[in-house]
Design a protein that fits this description.
Structural class: mainly beta
Shape: globular
Number of helices: 1
CATH superfamily of the largest domain: Glycosyl hydrolase domain, family 43
Strand content: over 45%
CATH class of the largest domain: Mainly Beta
Helix content: under 10%
Largest sheet: 7 strands, antiparallel
Length: about 475
């Protein structure tokens, strides 16, 4: 049997006997139990539970039959996949959107002690036989039992087609005017803002161009670190974002667009609604688009949740991304090293093995030409002269301060996420490991450097037992 066929056969065998523990199953990143997954949808927090809905094909390993899958978590780390929440209908398959807790019962959906949780989503017309000839419209579904069951609004759609494949509504509450605000993708680089008093009737506010951006808008207000002020942010699917002001009618950018992440597998980014009542963090999840999982019963994964913070650097504002503190609940054994000289070719992580890590280090670069991080046969190379980070065909700029490289890496079975300079740099990437190679390495090339400190926490799986 050819080697590739043998590997796939072995993986398929593991798939049938060890659900959630397959060789290529991420162990602390969310995946659907089976079949296709893409955009995170309806990220909302209520009464101790984080809800994550997601684009899901319940019947196939590839994209299609778009449905809102549903998962819940007490801590954004340990997830339980529930029954699908919103199924396709005569208006179309169910594309991306958002969810909010309707604390003031503006839509009138509340029937008991719990406020209604309302999902705002795109019905993608003409994407199924039942919706042939229908346009893309925006619709509502709601839950009156804290997100356990879902019912579609009987008068859908609540917003008719504006342009082309308009989609991906993100809704937030604007307290000064006691109104809901919706950001919606139109087509090309065009986006729009709308307002509503009741989530059912929407009026246009603004149409604007967002250069280099498309799909999956997010809109939120965020404090400026170290100040008493705040700014508004609008981002697109790729994490490209605008910082500006918003007065309830008009969003006004104060600088040119920037990118939150430099990696190849970061898309459809969305942040959580209603966490302000808990701790005020702005928490974001991305779809890690483009990963490869041969022989697996699932396809694609989510990023690990990150906290976003806004910082002023000179005359500009910049978003930092860092893993949520709840990652510490997975910490196992610790490998650490203090200051030492690193000679060319010397492996600082010699003897360290395992698939799941939270690794953080600082290196005074000295006269080293390259810093090479090896992850189960994949190399991440930092070139000192050009200040570039390279992995395979992907290369991006990473500046250092004072000749010191500071990097953090979250490493799972099929992905790594890098954070540099305190979160100012972010790089989200999928990879295929060498199955028999479980080693890590950290070496210098071309010269000597000085290790300022290193900590590597081995992580536990979030799946200690297979879910049924």
């Amino acid at each position: 049997m050819p080697f590739c066929s043998l590997v796939i056969s072995l993986l398929l065998s593991q798939t049938m006997t060890q659900p959630y523990h397959e060789a290529l199953r991420p162990q602390f990143h969310f995946t659907a139990k089976t079949n296709w997954l893409n955009d995170p949808n309806g990220l909302v927090y209520y009464n101790g539970t984080y809800h994550m809905f997601f684009q899901h094909n319940p019947t196939g390993i590839d994209w299609g039959n778009m449905t809102w899958g549903h998962a819940t978590s007490p801590d954004l780390v340990h997830w339980t996949q529930n029954s699908n929440a919103i199924d396709p209908d005569e208006l179309g398959t169910i594309f991306s959107g958002s969810a909010v807790v309707d604390w003031k019962n503006t839509a009138g959906f509340q029937t008991g002690k719990d406020p209604a949780i309302v999902a705002i989503y795109t019905s993608a017309g003409d994407t199924s036989p039942e919706s042939k000839g229908k346009p893309f419209t925006q619709c509502l579904a709601y839950s009156s039992d804290a997100g356990k069951t879902w019912k579609k609004y009987g008068a859908n759609p609540v917003l008719n087609q504006i342009a082309g494949g308009n989609r991906d509504p993100k809704v937030v509450w604007y307290e000064p005017q006691k109104e809901w605000v919706m950001a919606l993708y139109f087509e090309g680089n065009d986006f729009g803002l709308f307002k509503s008093a009741d989530l059912k009737h929407w009026e246009p506010l603004q149409r604007f161009k967002f250069d280099g951006a498309d799909e999956c808008p997010d809109i939120f207000e965020i404090p400026v670190e170290g100040t008493q002020g705040s700014k508004w942010v609008i981002s697109s699917a790729s994490g490209r974002y605008l910082v500006g002001t918003f007065d309830g009618s008009t969003f006004t950018p104060v600088q040119s667009p920037q990118n939150m992440d430099q990696g190849p597998n970061y898309y459809a980014v969305q942040s959580y609604s209603d966490i302000a009542k808990k701790d005020g963090r702005r928490i974001q999840i991305a779809w890690m688009r483009g990963g490869s999982y041969p022989g697996m019963p699932f396809n694609q994964q989510m990023s690990f949740p990150c906290v976003l913070t806004l910082h002023r650097e000179g005359s500009e504002y910049r978003i930092y991304r860092n893993p949520i503190r709840e990652i510490k609940s997975l910490y196992g054994s610790l490998f650490s090293k203090n200051q030492q000289v690193i000679h060319p070719g010397e492996n600082v992580l010699a003897g360290v093995e395992g698939d799941l890590w939270d690794l953080e280090f600082a290196i005074e670069l000295g006269d080293a030409k390259q810093v090479v991080l090896g992850i189960r046969g994949t190399q991440v190379i930092y070139d000192v002269a050009s200040e570039t980070l390279e992995c395979g065909p992907h290369k991006t700029h990473l500046a250092v301060s004072g000749g010191e490289l500071k990097l953090r890496a979250l490493i799972d079975r099929t992905s790594f996420e890098l954070y540099g300079n305190g979160g100012a740099f972010s790089y989200t990437s999928c990879f295929l490991p060498e199955l028999e190679n479980h080693s890590l390495s950290l070496t210098m090339q071309g010269g000597t450097a000085k290790l300022k400190g290193l900590k590597a926490h081995q992580l536990h799986s979030t799946w200690p037992q297979a879910q049924k």
